Amino acid sequence: MSFQTVLFDFDGTLADTNDLISDSYLYVLDHYFPGRYSKKDVISFNGPPLYDVFHQLYPEKATEMVAMYREFNLAQHDAYIRLFPGVEQGLIRLKEAGKNIGVVSTKQNKTLYRGLNSLGIEKYFDVVLGGDDYERAKPHPEPVLIGLERLKGEFTSTVMIGDNWQDIASANQAGVTSMFVSWSEKKLSDLSPHEPDIVVKDMKDLVQTIID
């Protein structure tokens, strides 16, 4: 099946920010809970909005913890962030094929744009949506539906691509095709009970699936 509208998550899908996110969480958590969390423990924190994660861990300090996270994350951002293999080449192929491409992320817009610009890939996207653009983040369908509307897409020819259960749940609830990328830290089993329509192993596989 060929897709015309292509929506990407950012972290863990296009950009390898796994170490940046994990180390940012550990920087904060080691301050409030010394020695309690390891890098393996915080992998599951990648996906939901920051405030939601910290509010669950320490409600009284959630706002303070978000600020500390962002301070560390922004200071270290450019040293950590990089593209996953084949991402830019894949985006070029999708644009050459006439696809409408968007980013749908939970990151603050200014941080999302910083990431896109530092990686040199903002120019490939017709729409960029960050956490400031909607009231309800993934897994709610609102972010995907806004992306679909902005790109004037059709439900039957739209695919939402991500590495987290939140991406898959948002796509499934929005009524578009969901695609899981298996090149990041999350495993297919981590998505349960949410099931993606398609699983791809690398960017070449992704492009072929979308174009063919």
UniProtKB/TrEMBL annotation:
One GO term of the biological process aspect: DNA repair
**Which domain of life does the UniProt lineage start with?**
Bacteria
InterPro entries in the cross-refs: HAD-like_hydrolase_sf, HAD-like_sf, HAD-SF_hydro_IA, HAD_2, HAD_sf, PGP-like_dom2
Q: GO terms for CC?
A: cytosol
- Kindly give the Pfam families that the UniProt entry links to this protein: HAD_2 (PF13419)
Query: GO molecular function terms here?
Result: phosphoglycolate phosphatase activity
Q: Read off the PANTHER family from this record.
A: PHOSPHOGLYCOLATE PHOSPHATASE, PYROPHOSPHATASE PPAX
Q: What name goes with this protein? A: Pyrophosphatase PpaX
